[in-house]
Protein 1
Amino acid sequence: MLKDCLGQVRLTTPLVHNITNYVTVNDVANVILACGGSPIMSDEPEDVEGITAICGGLNINIGTLHQSSIEGMFRAGKKANELGHPVLLDPVGAGASALRTGTAKRLLEELKITAVRGNISEIKALVQGSGTTKGVDADVADAVTEETLEQAVAFVKQTARAFGCILAVTGAIDLVSDGKTCYVIRNGRPEMGRITGTGCQLSGMMTAYLVANPGNRLEAAAAAVCAMGLAGEIGWGRMQAGDGNSTYRNRIIDAIYNMTGEELERGASYEVR
Amino acid sequence: MLKDCLGQVRLTTPLVHNITNYVTVNDVANVILACGGSPIMSDEPEDVEGITAICGGLNINIGTLHQSSIEGMFRAGKKANELGHPVLLDPVGAGASALRTGTAKRLLEELKITAVRGNISEIKALVQGSGTTKGVDADVADAVTEETLEQAVAFVKQTARAFGCILAVTGAIDLVSDGKTCYVIRNGRPEMGRITGTGCQLSGMMTAYLVANPGNRLEAAAAAVCAMGLAGEIGWGRMQAGDGNSTYRNRIIDAIYNMTGEELERGASYEVR
Amino acid sequence: MLKDCLGQVRLTTPLVHNITNYVTVNDVANVILACGGSPIMSDEPEDVEGITAICGGLNINIGTLHQSSIEGMFRAGKKANELGHPVLLDPVGAGASALRTGTAKRLLEELKITAVRGNISEIKALVQGSGTTKGVDADVADAVTEETLEQAVAFVKQTARAFGCILAVTGAIDLVSDGKTCYVIRNGRPEMGRITGTGCQLSGMMTAYLVANPGNRLEAAAAAVCAMGLAGEIGWGRMQAGDGNSTYRNRIIDAIYNMTGEELERGASYEVR
């Protein structure tokens, strides 16, 4: 039950170590607090192992890479692997530059990653080695639609198997798979793409869900995706004349803050294939 | 027509590479999304050339310099110059420290800059080599007022010629010139100065306008200044009892998000000298 | 009188140099503007001395350390000491990693610090050399309650004497002492802990208060603590159905923006021991 996944986060207050970009870091921290977790940020190589050791999981987001933070990602990731903590990778902008694509691939190869969350263009860039990523947004040509859904589900299952982890590809339709089963999720609003960082926020929250639900991680990842999409719907319902993307950002985080397990269970729109 | 400048941004979704400070970076990303563009942030020297290559323009903001981001600015700037992309420079805090003044001057000398946007104290610091900048805010003694307007227009025209680019000096009265013509703009609210980063936001949005309007960049820069000031007026009109600068920030970005070309055309308050 | 402390900030617009973490930096800037000060951020070692020299005080926050920002902290701190500027230290996450604990201790030893502001677990980690800090939040076992208050007041007085500075320990009950006198403050709301960075914001604002009130710094520090807690109460009073931690963040900063000296005087809930 999705609601149990949410409940476990609120019950256990998972501590999440984030090595994330400086663009959306504040929203990532607030959404982790909103869902019931506790965030800590640290990317300095000399600091990350100590921080990871006191946390329950690690969220690696490559949105603004630095040479030192890349080293921090590997050191933290290795420590998290040693400790058996879940590690999530958000390959922001993979396909947009060689450094991003290459770093994301190396992280996938050298670390044991629990889950990857990205848009379809980023994931294709990781699989195919080159991509058509339009900056940090997915290319329209890649979009998962009802028409391309069957193919897309097959691609996501296959890629999850190739990566050896859970794969969450988010967009108009979200797909979350462990290689065998695939959740097809239809929550969310297109206007979420007009806010910076809803993807980063989801990655942070998903890490909290993975930490809090060690026995059913696929469902936990799917629950986080449903929660984010549902928060987008609830937040949109509270928009007033004159409100725009800045207020929408606040309302989405507010909706995560107030979301109950029952609300999630009722509002989640998904099928399992 | 200003409204055509805005319309071109919404039509073409210009991708803007930002090397900007970590204080206001989230607001810069959201305002670029709000106006119809698409932002990407990257300052790592090994990453910037690849990112600039897929973008349409480059926004360089020196609000929080690091040795590595300075190198990133030059590498990205040279690549943008090669590709003929517009490059905007926001010399935040020029005059406040030798590193800031010196870096801004070197960027102006070594790169082909399309537009500079700053407050009057920052621009004077660049021209005179030393300044009376009060931190990141303009010195009251430098302020452009109705009394000093004629002189200020002459100074801005002359400086635009000396820099060889468009110069936008923003404050109570905003001046935007290419060295020949000068837009004198009277939109905005004094309370905008009580929010961090309205200048940085304008620089990000102006870069999107410059990318989307290659044939009429002076007008595009002026349109961005009018849009920001008008958003300040619209946002202020929506303030309720108890609201302060944090809510005002959200309402300004919201106003950019909702602004139509007609609204901009009607609300813009400017003369050309 | 607390209201005079607030009045001095609004009257003198203290310029505050912040070397702070990238998670909450935007909120720190906006809260300093809200209370009547003017923020500038700079952590690059080559830049910090120039920036500190034009400011009135320095706020050092170790929330996201980098090797270069650590060097920046020492260089800025030494310059501020030379100039007789107040220096505040916020030891975010001391106890959570060796780098944080060690850096905070070295800063305390090598710089003349005017005030330290942290949660009880961070302060215990600095005193005892090791701590039970739960990430960036205080450990429940350490909490200052009515039951443990007498002990806690004695600990804070003793530690303030040991540090040779003002010590502000914030939590459900806030304690602010110069080693002789201790303000016991009961403003605030528990929900403030569900927003990232209310502590960082307070540290930024407290630095502005210290700069503006050189003759009565203990009272100024206490006034800043009361103002933050009261803003949490006022902001909470403005929450509507569906609002959560993101909106609450905005409302707290808004309350600081609108707070009058009379409102602070009337709303402050404290005793002196």
Protein 2
Amino acid sequence: MEIKIVRNVLEANNKLAAEIRQRTANSKTLLVNLMSSPGSGKTTLLEKLIPMLQAKGYQIGVIEGDITTTMDAERLQPLNIPIVQINTEPFGGDCHLGAELVLPALDSLDLANLDFVFIENVGNLVCPAEFDTGADVNVVVLSVTEGGDKPLKYPLMFRVCHLALISKTDLLPYLDLNLDLLRQNMLQINPKLTIFPISAQRGDGLADLRDWLIKLKR
Amino acid sequence: MEIKIVRNVLEANNKLAAEIRQRTANSKTLLVNLMSSPGSGKTTLLEKLIPMLQAKGYQIGVIEGDITTTMDAERLQPLNIPIVQINTEPFGGDCHLGAELVLPALDSLDLANLDFVFIENVGNLVCPAEFDTGADVNVVVLSVTEGGDKPLKYPLMFRVCHLALISKTDLLPYLDLNLDLLRQNMLQINPKLTIFPISAQRGDGLADLRDWLIKLKR
């Protein structure tokens, strides 16, 4: 009985995710879902990456997912782009964004005039991986401070993602991290994963990331 | 109807948590539940703290919670202490430890001869806060690399904890973190929170932590 309930939730979610994909296909918008542990640098990445896409003439929107507060959305306000905040607290403090929350958020965006919409998911390396948001691209951000074993310990996240960003590489000189082993562990879980090391603060790797996203643009 | 189901799960969990508290009260064991995002340094903390408690004559046990792998338990094996691994993957890749998993783990430990049992919960700053494990003390570990806004964005975790450890303080010189603001944000969510900054790698703050735990010992 319990399994049936979970299945129904996932089936309902997948149906809404398909509806989202239909909508973004119609408007030729690339929907990119950023997932990670809390504090891996998703918001800082958006602060730096979005102006680089704007400089190439693209129009950007953001869906901010947080349990509570609008702190991340406020950090992005200087970019002068449409931002929709989803707070999951009224829905029981949900630990992830489901398609049922992303779909109404899309209603608030003028998709026909947006080339890229970034979803910043709730900071959590576990649950967001279980729910399809309808995104075209799933991206996991893992900070170098989190340790090289994380892909093996949280495999589903790395299995559902197309791209892994190894963030905060500016801190590498002060850490014991074996970057090659981290890459190997990521590829052991998902051999198709594209991997970019980045430092949003220094700008390292962001041009590669920008060009990779532009190539996927319909 | 859905709310009813969630309530039943939480009620069943709370009943088992009470049973756990009865057992550890009988054996005079202090059960300590460590929670945090992935990669905040829970395992490294246990590697350093446990020998310091052993040096004071205390007997220690550990319950390791992971979705999959026994990597953390293996890191603790040199300590030569009883360790019980709980992998939540067979239970649907659960993102937290519930009392229903901790209770059978206690069966594998000789509680009468253990002064402290540490639970290393699944790395997740959201869901573990929602489920009482039956622990006497809830501890959140937040790494300085995660940013000062996290208590405001993940308030439930800081609300249910007695102690907050600000970890990896050895990295502070390379970060933009305002440590006073982080403390203020923690106390804004939970004014009763005890806070220790620590560096497990350098040993900073660990003697304070050890003495704080010993004072709570029955």
Protein 3
Amino acid sequence: MSIPDKVVNRLALYHFILEDLKDDEQYISSTKIAQLLNIDNSQVRKDIKYLDNSGKCRVGYDARRLKKAIEDCLGFQQKKDAFIIGAGNLGSALAKYDSFQDYGLNILAMFDNDPKKIGTTINGKEVFNLTKVGNLVRRLNVEIAILTIPREYAKGVALYLAGAGIKYIWNFTPCVLDVPSDVKVWNENLIGSFLQFTNNDEV
Amino acid sequence: MSIPDKVVNRLALYHFILEDLKDDEQYISSTKIAQLLNIDNSQVRKDIKYLDNSGKCRVGYDARRLKKAIEDCLGFQQKKDAFIIGAGNLGSALAKYDSFQDYGLNILAMFDNDPKKIGTTINGKEVFNLTKVGNLVRRLNVEIAILTIPREYAKGVALYLAGAGIKYIWNFTPCVLDVPSDVKVWNENLIGSFLQFTNNDEV
């Protein structure tokens, strides 16, 4: 069953909440989740119906079962290997983001064109010369690239990645990429996100 | 008129496309925009109807007018001042993200509790001791905090920011914050985003 994007997003947030529960909190109610996220109670219950989760009783959901049901549904156990393209601050931050591992994202290596960065290691991930990406895509069978390079290089490098065999680009640059149709792009549109935030609330 | 979140997000992407047009490209069609984003043509036309934009003719939209209409609609000129909380890699990356300025986000200063970072400057933004945040919130009248600290400190620091007078938290931590109801939180849920990306396409 395909789950709408917004629901996937909220299920991840529910998982954060469950992660933070103390050991003695065995149950959690939809009301509690809804209140923490400032959303509607019925929304939470509807989202949870997408899961294969029968751990509901009068006092709420069984927290451990609900957590496991989210993990199974969203495939946290199915590791997805990825490369980070760009070893600047943002790339380094993502390489150090150990939570990714828990959610199925396995970052194998990083790439840059700066000789000072090539050969260094960030959180156990080696930085390779960008020219090596095709070779390593084939050898390691990696399909996902996380693009964190400066805007002015984004389009060119995206085409280069497509040519190297990358099939999915998670794009953190403020730039719309023009790649062949067999490459899927997911725009992590930070500026759009900020604008949503501030336009809704008249900051 | 309130604009749905998804539309705001797409309008920002249209703006990226318009930014990248060459000087001699005076017009752009909805088909071209739709094709670059792999969405439906009618969607683009519908989104643009939210704008106060009369620059449409047979060959497409007047690119300069459309760009200006998006800027006016989403308030790029209304500067919103913000602080970055956490001067690690992610905080530094956001501080160096000069594009924010063009879209109305004005980062005034950063805060950390690491003595080695306090007093340094990142892209012209000084890093202050976190204990100073209340004072500077009042003096500079800042309402927005961008939270980029490690997960384990997120809840505590969010409460501290609420107490210091912050009204909007853009939360980059994988943690659901529990703050008083007069503080609005926007979760930049990177893990949810990755899961949406990979669940839709069976990577």
